[in-house]
Design a protein that fits this description.
The protein is α/β, with parallel strands linked by helices and 258 residues long. Helices cover 34% and strands 26% of the residues. A six-stranded mixed beta sheet has the order 6-7-8-3-9-10, sandwiched between helices. 36% of the residues are buried.
């Protein structure tokens, strides 16, 4: 596979009148085309800051981020960004919501609309195309948000804890749905999450960050005896517990013994 995304020696600090707060330190990693990478780390270690840098919403203080060998800022319109909340507009129908990105980018072509319509049909939302967001369950709203993100056909998906606002049962089901959709659409994805189980169930590889200023403690490829398991299926696999314990141990390596 070819490398799609590459971050090299990326560092970032927040500045205020009271001084400088280092957030990220010397981050280097790459993501291959079609790969699903999960990023985990302690609370407050600026995982979402790293995602914002990858999206070129902010610029690193040092280091470089390239996509297909070009500065990430030149690739910005080909990046899909899915946030924690679905941010669907109540005054627009579901169809109008999922085509919003196409409308803003002036890409309401027959081809793009046909592809979006097919995704709505494939993922169980077509019959709700004229409904309002308040008429949908939380899981259906997240599927609609994902289709909205996929409608402009982005080359890279960035997912910032997209299931964290859902209740546990819905979260499991939606994670399963969303990850299978991403795989079916052959998308490259980077997921930021504080949920270790979620990372292991969804990703091909997990990037483990340390405490602020965050650096990479370990990269952990995930291999299951049955390679075609769904995220829900992975949670039942014997390898799941082993990976969970490995990541947990890495994240807590610096904790003082009780």
């Amino acid at each position: 596979m070819d490398t799609l995304l590459k971050a090299e020696h990326v560092s970032y600090s927040y500045h205020s009148l009271s001084g400088e707060t280092p957030a990220l330190s010397d981050i280097t990693f790459s993501v291959e085309e079609g790969e699903f990478l999960a990023i985990v780390g302690p609370s407050g270690c600026d995982k979402s800051t790293l995602l914002s840098l990858l999206a070129s919403l902010m610029n690193p203080e040092s280091g470089t981020i390239t996509i297909q060998g070009r500065p990430a800022s030149e690739y910005r319109r080909k990046i899909g960004y899915m946030l924690q909340k679905d941010h669907l507009f109540e005054w627009r129908t579901i169809w109008k919501n999922v085509t919003l990105g196409l409308e803003i980018q002036k890409r309401m072509t027959r081809e793009n609309l046909a592809r979006t319509e097919q995704m709505m049909k494939d993922y169980g939302l077509w019959e709700f195309r004229n409904a309002r967001p308040s008429e949908l369950s939380g899981g259906m709203r997240q599927r609609a948000a994902l289709i909205r993100t996929l409608a402009p056909n982005p080359g890279l998906l960035l997912l910032d804890e997209p299931f964290s606002v859902l209740d546990y049962q819905t979260r499991l089901n939606v994670c399963d749905d969303v990850c299978q959709i991403i795989k079916k659409e052959h998308k490259t994805a980077v997921l930021v999450t504080h949920d270790l189980s979620e990372a292991i169930s969804a990703a091909d590889r997990v990037l483990i960050l340390g405490r602020r200023p965050a650096s990479i403690r370990r990269e952990l490829p995930l291999h299951f005896a049955e390679p075609r398991l769904t995220p829900m299926g992975r949670r039942q696999a014997p390898e799941f517990r082993e990976y969970f314990n490995m990541i947990w141990k890495e994240l807590n390596a610096d904790e003082d013994p009780v």
